[in-house]
Specification:
By secondary structure, this protein is an alpha/beta fold. The chain has 2 domains: about 220 residues, Rossmann fold, CATH 3.40.50.300; about 80 residues, Aspartate Aminotransferase, domain 1. The protein is about 35% helix and about 25% strand. It contains 13 helices and 16 strands. The strands form 4 sheets. The chain has a 9-stranded mixed beta sheet with strand order 7-6-8-9-5-10-11-12-13, with helices on both faces. Strands 14-16-15 form a 3-stranded antiparallel beta sheet. The protein has a two-stranded parallel sheet with strand order 1-2. β15 and β16 form a beta hairpin. The longest helix has 18 residues. The chain is globular.
Length: about 350
């Protein structure tokens, strides 16, 4: 390979107009801030990467878990609380380690103890349970703030369920839905914690858009950073978890439910895919079925929009393919970029790995 050719390949991953400057997330622009940054400054800045509560399943911020009654939502939440508090995987994916505050308004302490024992979870001093009634208008926010002050390691707050913390005198409306969830979302940002709110889905709506299954207005799904839809018929061993979020895209996970232990397990294929960002998982699937891609940057942008993610940019895809290059190479997938004075192009090729 010529030196020029090598430099062209390197430029694919290092093409930045200016050297990166250090810009922490706390310095980034937020609503009502008087400081702004140009897109050039942001793209040139050394910002922290996107983080997750659970890798590629639950993004940070405010999450909404909805499902029919008795579908296993509380069991799934308890498994998540156990994973975070004990530094264990959740549905085979890495979970953030830290303290958990679990508001379970529909349970008693005795019922929670029985559930922990039946699910064979690991009792932890970092997993805290509250059954006392709080609402958004009566003490909930203050309780969470005080707890965070006394437990700085708090990373996850679970509220089971949304209906218990709402003001019953307020009518259901888009504005009220946004107002209630925005209050929790702002608190999550203020305290640098993640908040998961449990809710219900509509009856008889299994065939509609997943987001339309959530009971209430689109103000709920529009405000949450991540939406999780759990589908499981009563007494059924099969379940599906649909995950939609700003940082995870959209993924469907096939789960199995074990009634004796009240636990959910993921299929082997979905467990593998969840270990990867959805764009990389789709890239692997697409390349293995089509053989790859070769074309200009403009053609590559159209290819990404059609096959990978309509919202992903070329620069973001470069970052992902570079970050997961070892995984791609192990599967025989090669991603190379070329740059000349006139054009830029991309080649994605597949060679079956030797056994």
């Amino acid at each position: 390979m010529s030196i020029q050719h090598a430099e062209e390949r390197s430029a694919f991953f290092t093409n930045q107009p200016h050297a990166p400057t250090r810009l922490t997330e706390s310095q980034a622009p937020f609503p009502h801030s008087q400081t702004s940054y140009s897109t050039l400054e942001l793209c040139s800045a050394d910002l922290p990467p996107v983080s997750y509560l659970v890798d590629n399943i639950i993004g940070t911020g405010l999450a909404l878990l909805a499902g029919p009654p008795k579908s296993g939502k509380s069991c799934l939440c308890m498994a998540l609380a156990d994973a975070v508090a004990n530094g264990k995987p959740f549905l085979n994916a890495k979970a953030t380690y830290g303290e958990v505050l679990y508001f379970t308004f529909e349970d008693t302490f005795s019922r929670v103890k029985e559930r922990v024992m039946q699910m064979n979870l690991t009792p932890s001093a970092k997993c805290h349970i509250i059954t006392q009634q709080y609402t958004l208008a009566n003490g909930l926010l203050e309780c969470i703030r005080n707890f965070k002050s006394n437990h700085p390691g708090l990373v996850l707050v679970i509220i089971d369920t949304l209906q218990w913390i709402r003001d019953p005198s307020r009518k259901m409306s888009y504005g009220n839905d946004v107002d209630e969830l925005a209050t929790l979302k702002q608190l999550a940002h203020e305290l640098s914690v993640n908040i998961l709110v449990v809710h219900h889905t509509r009856k008889g709506s299994a065939d509609c858009n997943p987001l339309e299954r959530v009971s209430g207005t689109t103000g709920l799904t529009g405000t949450a950073d991540t939406i999780l839809i759990l589908e499981r018929s009563f007494k059924s061993a099969k379940a599906e978890l649909q995950c939609v979020g700003k940082d995870i895209g959209a993924i469907d996970l096939s789960l199995s439910f074990e009634p004796d232990t009240l636990t959910f397990d993921m299929s082997e294929k979905d467990a593998y895919n969840c270990a990867l960002p959805p764009q990389i998982a789709r890239l692997i699937e697409t390349v293995l079925s089509t053989g790859g891609f070769n074309g200009s940057n403009d053609e590559f942008a159209n290819w990404l929009s059609e096959h990978i993610d309509p919202n992903i940019s070329i620069s973001r895809m470069r970052q992902l393919t570079s970050q997961y290059s070892e995984v791609l190479n192990s599967l025989g997938i090669s991603v190379k970029g070329y740059r000349s004075a006139a054009t830029r192009s991309v080649t994605i090729s597949y060679t079956a790995p030797l056994n």
